[in-house]
Design a protein that fits this description.
The protein is mostly beta strands. The protein is built from no helices and 28 strands.
Length: 298
């Protein structure tokens, strides 16, 4: 079925509803998720619903964050403070920054498991896997046979990684070869963690790779895929909605998309103000006002 794009260039008014003082308590808008605001060096709420959301208040911590990779559903983020400390930020039950004793000063690749129970991050060829509970703990450290250019971790703490050579390897107790023979460019675990979804740039396909070596094609895509998140893949040509056959829509953006952050019923294109969701048979592209205000071409 053909998919279309709605580009809404208008900036939405805040979605918070205020009841008259005489009519009772204030009604608050739902929270769509959380995004990192680079300009404010803080994590902020995306208030509202898909298609009508606005940037809300900052999550307050004891110091500012120079960078952060956010997991909205678990209310977690792997970040670096303005002082250069790698931290796990959490705000599900009180706002807390937990300093991580890691050898990596600035993680280059970051991936959370589906539930948020594990986070994996890397710098060069070094990879660390951490649990994210009340007292975060490093579970494993690996040094790969080459620079790591992509990561995925499941809820069992197993990591699939993309090497600069184009191979996919898996880390459990040690490095294991997982998939070769293609120009792999991005990967992610399925939500149940039983298989890996990967982009084969040689054939222009998104494929499902099972642990027993099975391979099945999910969709054809146009352009090299840089990130996979949920049912979306960010490509050089736009955003591919591969659960619907791989239909790709252009991202109208004077920016450099850096990744995809899963929200409640939508995804945020990291490094931009853009939020994408599916409405019936259409993909809808909207903007979060004041977050990268140049993120949408007017």
């Amino acid at each position: 079925m053909k998919r279309h794009l709605k580009l809404l260039s208008c900036l939405f008014a805040p979605a918070t509803l205020w009841a008259a003082e005489t009519s009772g308590p204030r009604l608050e808008s739902p929270v769509l998720g959380y995004v990192f605001d680079q300009a404010a060096q803080s994590i902020r709420t995306a208030d509202g619903i898909p298609g009508a959301a606005s940037l809300g208040e900052a999550v307050e911590f004891s110091t500012s964050l120079a960078s952060a990779h956010v997991h909205s559903g678990a209310r977690l983020a792997l970040g670096v403070t303005k002082e250069g400390q790698v931290v796990l930020a959490s705000w599900a039950a009180g706002n807390r920054l937990s300093a991580l004793e890691t050898e990596l000063d600035a993680p280059g690749q970051v991936a959370f498991s589906h539930s948020g129970g594990h986070v994996a991050f890397s710098g060069g060829a070094v990879l660390e896997v951490w649990s994210t509970g009340t007292s975060p703990a490093r579970l494993r450290r690996f040094e790969a046979e080459g620079a790591l250019t992509g990561l995925a971790v499941n809820d069992a703490g197993e990591v699939a990684a993309l090497l600069s050579s184009g191979r996919i390897v898996r880390f459990r107790e040690e490095e294991e070869s997982f998939a070769a023979g293609a120009d792999w460019s991005a990967l992610a675990y399925t939500s149940d963690g039983s298989a890996v979804i990967a982009a084969d740039g040689l054939r222009g396909e998104l494929v499902r790779l099972s642990a027993d070596g099975g391979r099945s094609v999910l969709a054809s895509v146009t352009g090299r895929v840089s990130v996979i998140e949920g049912e979306y893949a960010l490509t050089a040509s736009g955003l591919a909605w591969f659960s619907s056959g791989g239909a790709t829509v252009p991202v109208a953006c004077d920016c450099r998309p850096q990744g995809l952050d899963r929200l409640n019923g939508a995804v945020h294109i990291r490094g931009t103000s853009l939020v994408v969701d599916a409405e019936g048979n259409e993909l809808r592209l909207t903007a979060l006002p004041n977050l990268f205000p140049n993120g949408v071409n007017q």
